[in-house]
Structures are given as C-alpha cells and as structure tokens.
Amino acid sequence: MQMIYFDSMAFVSFSAQSVLGNTTTVSNVFINEYLPTLPDNCVKVYLYGLHLCSSGDRYDNEIEHFARTMSLSREDIISIFTYLSDLGLVQILSLNPIQIKYLPVISGGHRLKKIKKGKYDDFNAQLQAIFNTDTISNTNRMISSNDFGEYHSMMEYLHIEPQALVMIAKYCVDLKKDKNVSTNYILTVAKNWAYAEIKTVESVEKKIMDDGVDSKNIQKILVAMGSKKTPEPADFEMYHKWKNDMGFGLDVIIHVAKGTKGGMSALDTRILKYFELKLFEIAEIKDFEDNKQNLRKLARAINKEIGEFYADVDSVIENYIRNWQMMGFDDNTLMAVAKYCFKSNVKTLDGMNRVIERFYKLGVTNVSAIENFVGNKVTQDKVVKDVLEKLGSSREVNSFDRNFYNTWKSDWKMPDELIEYAITMAKDKASPMAYMNKILSSYHDKGIQTAADAKKTGTAPLKEKNFIRHSFSDEKNLSRIFADLNDTDI
C-alpha cells in the first residue's frame, strides 16, 4: 500500500487511506485488538499522533509541541513510539530529526500480546515485600493494582528487567529512608536510568555501587552547606555534572558549598559561574572572591567613565571585566580604554568590549602601548588628512584612507616625494584616493621609486613642499580612529 511520508516539518504522518478533515478516524482493529492491553501512555501518544496526522497542522506537528501537550518528555515520546514500532503500528523513519510514519492497522497481524497471567507474579511479590510492615514502621503499605499496572507497562515498553526494577525500587526506599515513597518517584528514577541504558540487573548493580561511593561525597557537600537531608537522585546528577563534565574536584566543591545558602540548586548556580569564569582551584576562587570588592569599584568606575549604568555590577564583572583581565589588561589600562572610548563616542560596555578585543588582537594590552598606538594613529591621520585636502576633498579620514596609506608606506615603501607627485595626477578626480592608489600601484609594479622616474609620464610634479599643515584635536581624531578600529588593518 502506498504511504504518505513526512514533509520537512512534520514529526508524524498518516497512511494514504486517511482523509484529512475535522475528525480523527480510529481503526476498529486498533480499538478491539490493541486498546485493551496497551499501556495508558502508549494509547495517549498513539491517538494524539493519529490526530496530528489527520489535522494537517504543520506548526503543531513537531515533537516539542507533542511532548508539551502530552506532559511527557521527549525521551518518553521516543520510547513509546519505539514500543509502538515493535508492535507494527508505526515505523520510525529517522531519529535525527525524529520522524514517524503511521502504518495500516491489520487484524491479526500485530505482535502485541496480552500480559500473560502470572508473568509478573514474582515481581509483584518482591516489590510488595519492600513495602511490608517491619519493626520500625507501624503501617503496611499495599501496592494498588493500578500501581502494579504502571510498573508492568514500564517494563514492557522500556524493556527493563523485572529484577532490575525491584532493585531500583529498593534503592529509592533506602535512599529516602521512607517506605511511603511514591510510585511516581520510583518510576521517574527507573525511567531516567532506562534512558541511560541502565535496564539490567548488572547495570543497576553497578549504578547503585557507584552511587554508594558518590553518596558519601554528596553527604559531605550537604553537611558543608549545613544541610541534614538525604541525597536525592537529582543531587547525584548535579554532582556527576560538576565532577565529570566540568572537572571540579571534591575539595573545591566542598569549599564553595561552605559559603552557599539555598541548597544544591544555589550551589549549582555558583559552580556554574566559576566554570564560566574558568576558576577551578580553591586558590583561584578565593583570590577572585577576596578581590571582588575591588572589582566592583573598577566596574562602577568604568561604567561612570563611559556614561553607562548597571545596578548589578557583578554581572559586569562576570561578563566583561573578568574576561578583559584574562586577556592581560590591568585596571589602569581598562580605565584608559574607557576614557578613550568615551571621547570617541563609544559609550556602552559592548562597544568597549569590541575595542578591547581589537586591541588584544593587535597585542596592545597596556597603557603605554595604547598611548603609542593612539598617538601614532593621530599623527598618521594628520598626514592622511593633508593628502585628502591636497586632492581637493574636505571630508574626514576613514578606514579606507588609512588602509591605502598603510599600503603605500608600509607595504610598497613609497617615498614621500612619489606620493606627492601622485597627488598632482589624482587631484580633482571623481574618486581621487582610489585613482591615486591605482597610480602608485602602477609605480610599484614598474619599480618606480623616485619622482624623477615618474616624470617620464609627462605629468608636472607637485610644487608644494610642506606635507603636514593642519592640526586636529585629539578627541576629534580619536573619534574617527575608534569608530574605524574594527575595520582597520594595522
């Protein structure tokens, strides 16, 4: 039978026999042969996917919307469709991006079997035993048939070994030290472990053993924060992230925990901040925290200098100043750059950051180097401005002019007399600087280095001798230099 495949946007699609409309048609075969024994979530996902196939709504037909509507995770959706695929109801075309094709429902052709009576009797007995009354508890918690059904469904569609799920349930009870721990809590832990391919007795044993070692370390972290609570599964996830993904040692985590209020979530925020600041050792963190008051003063001074206001200067420190210091800029240099920025009409931290990044690429990272750079650029701009005026232009110097002049003097080694001679040929042209560049390029190609050789072209030499005639205020020159800094090749 011909099938309809997904378009580039669709997450699920329907078979050719479907008719788009205002209703969703459910096969009687599905109702009679699948519905009675499918887990509840599988029925919900199948029917909602069927609805999306029928609706033709491209916007809603994507997995994120699907998961939000069903109040399930992306992993839940994929696991359920994998289960439905095993039953022959759908076909998974792709996992990245996720694309599902709905297949015709054929009577007697499915592989779904009712859970055989007695299949999970041993599991049920072992699970119930975990919650039975003991000498400590005065209550006896009986697992409901609905809860047993949830456990059975999870084992069916996530392929978790029954004994492994019993071990997970006991782990949760022992971890919480509470036999009233909810079924949803146990199922959530089991589901997360299953997504990490922890589904067998062997893998669960290893996970519990590893968590036993980590539990002692997490307990030390909690004690450092003044907490007496028992480690939760979420605590293990955070600890593994700090240790394995970010590379923090236990001693560093405990050091940070000692000054943290607000639990593991607040600690996670602080450790993430230090990770972003590239602070991985206790000494680095202590130095940063001890110096934070000075950094706050510097942040306020820079803000004041460039005319910007931030109520939260800690964000300025973390997002800007710390990075600038790691580039090698000290406090005095940063204040000097801030002053230059204000004079050149760069009055935001983002703008100052672009200037600093450019200086860093140029190797200009201290006050004297910046002063030399600016001084050289101001002097050069006076020279270039004089060239423009001799060409009959009254406009200001821009980055193109600077690049032209740098090429003539630095790359082609043109003497001043040859540049002056070229001015006479380009004067009053429509684009005099570009025209002059062509002339000097021709001289460079021909190896002409003197005005005498250039005179052979038949053009009269320039009579004016004084090359620099005008002076411009520093602020005026700085404004142009800083405005073109990112575009100028130095």
**Cα distance, first to last residue?**
68 Å
| Helical percentage | 55-70%
**Low-pLDDT segments:** 1-9, 15-20, 458-473
Query: What's the helix count?
Result: 23
Shape: elongated
User: What Rg do the Cα atoms give?
Assistant: 37 Å
Structural class: mainly alpha
Strand content: under 5%
**Could you tell me the mean pLDDT?**
82
What is the string of helix and strand elements? Answer: EHHHHEEHHHHHHHHHHHHHHHHHHH
Strand order of the largest sheet: 1-3-2
Number of strands: 3
Characterize the largest beta sheet: strand count, sense, and whether it forms a barrel.
Answer: 3 strands, mixed
Properties at a glance:
single chain; 490 residues; mainly alpha; three-stranded mixed β-sheet; 3 strands; 3% strand; elongated
